[in-house]
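User: Batch of two.

Assistant: Item 1 of 2:
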Amino acid sequence: MQQPAIGYLPPDRPPLGAMISLGFQHVLTMFPATVLVAILTGFDIGVTLFASGLATVVALLASGMRIPMYYGSSFSYIAAVRGITMPGGTLAAARVPLAQAGIVATGIVNVAVGFIVRKIGKERLDRVLPPVVTGSVAIVIGIALGKVALDMATGTCCLRDASGAPMASSQWWTVAAITLVCTILFSVYLQGRGLIGMLPVLLGAAVGYFVALFMGMVNFEPVRQAAWLRMPNFSFPAFGNPEMWKAVLAIAPIAIATIPESTAHLYQIGLYIDRLAEGMGRSKLNVSRLIGLNLMLDGIGDFINGVLGGCAGTNYGENNSLMVITRNYSGPVLVAAGVIGMLLGFVGKLAALVQTLPVPVTGGLAIYLFGVIGLQGVALMISEKVDFFDPRQLAVAATILVVGIGGAAFPGGNIPLWGMQLPSIATSAVMGIIINLVFLIFPPEQYVPMLAARKAGGN
């Protein structure tokens, strides 16, 4: 007799101790990227962590624990926000509130789009964002970040030789490789062993941390210097600034480009949740039908970030990968993660301790997590039976993959076009949507006799 699958569905509440440890694993997963975006854009790290956690808690409560997502800082907005906060590459702290006004505007855009989607229904949205678009975007999100993972694993992100050129370190790669292998082994061989089987990323990070500690790569000085308690540097949007509309027009439109990303994340996670529910002998949750609500929650999260002074956010593919690996989709666990994230904004020593996690350890984890994001896109297209013998599907997928993954090779992942720096992932998604719309507006069956005959014959 087949044993029922083991895991947690969104409404499930693990015991308190398990909830805290599983929640901390989520925080560990989102922490490096969320902090990095804050550093790159000049935003306060404490505020970004607090706002990220608050956005997650609000989203989980507002969805009735139905949509398991963690909201971290989005890479898609980096170029636009830096253009406002760091003109010429130097932080102008007084301009951060200007960027906040733009982030609030992205929240309004997302809420408006989510409201429209709820009115028109998922079926109509699927015509504009079919599985070939959302699946391809998911692949791009994971694979385009591959170089980021390898840069962290090898040291080329941070180390420089005497001439200032990026330099790899065999010591960094050793730590990253040990972290990666241990995390993979834990995720495979600890399956079905209760709580410990749901903590492969935390366990892999712990092994990597101790290896790095043994190699002298962990610096505890920032922990000693950090205050126990601190007040994050909250700031409020500069709505009265004459340049506000410039910031809004620079930042808000990117929200449209990130909608396919958010949609892909929800469709991916919904697929795996339903598979787990079947294995547990429980009813499917059909989370993917909540796409309108999900987009509205994205907007509420950005509104929270913009008002408080946090970075523009998105629901994190890394945390989705963690949930897929561990089969833990518990909403209460994500609420615990959000609360921990909020506390990190106030507890200086705790935040500093988490920041002692060496970059190569994060790189080792990222290789696995980013790869799983990409493969979730493949799984989505297989599940939805995308026909790659159809030239239309091939055209959409091919364009998204090459523009998204190829564009990531440019500095900062931005494609230089028409005097602008266009985020590669968002640009690839928009191009895929446009190509798909062309086929919707001008159906090939009306212009190609062979296709018209095939359709008439039911083939």
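Item 2 of 2:
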Amino acid sequence: MKKLSGVKTPHYKNTAMCAPQTIPVPPEVKLPMLMHSGTPANPVVKVGDYVKVGQVIGEAAGFVSSPVHASVSGTVKSIDTLDGITGTNAVSITIKSDGNQTPFEAAPVPVTNLDEFLEAVRNSGVVGLGGAGYPTAPKFTLKETVILDYILINGAECEPFITSDTRTMVDETGFVWDGVLLMKEYLKPKNIIICIENNKPEPIKKFQELCKGMEGVSVRVLPSLYPQGERKVLVYNVTGRIVPEGGRLPDVGCIVVNCTTVATFAKYIKTGRPLVSKCVTVDGSAVKNPQNVIAPIGTPVRDIFEFCGGLITDGKLNDDVKKITLGGPMMGIAIPNIDVPIVKITNAVLAFSAKDAIPPEPTACIKCGKCLFKCPMKLMPPNIENAYELKKPELLKKFKVNMCAECACCAFTCPAKRPLIQVMILAKNMLWEYEQEQKAKKKEAK
């Protein structure tokens, strides 16, 4: 079977052998109520309340939502309504830590049937921790008509630099395996396949040993090719099934779930401890001491950099740091300052020097077609770019811009250094606005 296209990015997996170190408790954390796809959580605390680690401070506000738990013990300092990255209105709760990390009462969660399993997954606060952020419980809530042939455990971690998922598979193998067994028992798929790229020999060996004699559970070793871990790419490359435009993975009998997500809900069921901290890779060309750290969710990037050393002097970011991203260099988000907190989906904080941070000046498209050949979704980025510049949303629909996985393979491979990924995202927004206008016109016409 022919695999979908992609690009050979440099690995830069400098921290793959670095067991994560736990940073000191930060003075305060800022916890957004929207760290997932869907509806923001509703705050259930007020300024002045004392909270403990693992206590619910934001309740899930709908089917596609996720609760938020206190990641430190201390006092609720403020409840703000401004997102530090986008500048849009989004509620965040700031907790001033008392430094004690006093835990909220926790105990193993009894699970004996599917409903209890789904409720436990929901209460754990877990979402797609590979970066997608979709709440896990709704993903597992399938229609009766769905025949679940495959659950794919995503351990590809194909982005350069990031090794936090690798450390989960190495350091928390037992929890990942517990999660596999829970899904096997309650979701009853025909097959569970643990998907790992071939540049991760230690996790491959560990899970191959566990899978021996286990019917319906196996390991698939995949070539190191970006974006191998993108959900539709993974489904096709492992099962040969194509997710149609506008379709969902269960439509083709599949679910993809990140390996750290699996470990997180299994840990909650076994211990009662919800998602309150993250393993984060700290790396990049401006980082002298690349490492993995474990930090409470809501920790400002400043505190992580201070722990790692060599990035902050006298409270200020060093001059050689020109760009910081949450996430990898391909799909990560650049942040405006180091007071931005890490959130549930943060798997890396990367700092880059000028030579890697300043983009080259784009030149005219030379019609080489490299972006077409490397696009895993088989799209035509130059055509989409032209349609966007001409402000023709009907053409964007024709060229299926909504199929774009935003993987940036087009921009990575472009010899003219066209800002293709930025255009693809803006073009999606243009098409969405156009479709909303069309819906409004139809409604008025009735």
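Residues 370-445 form one domain.
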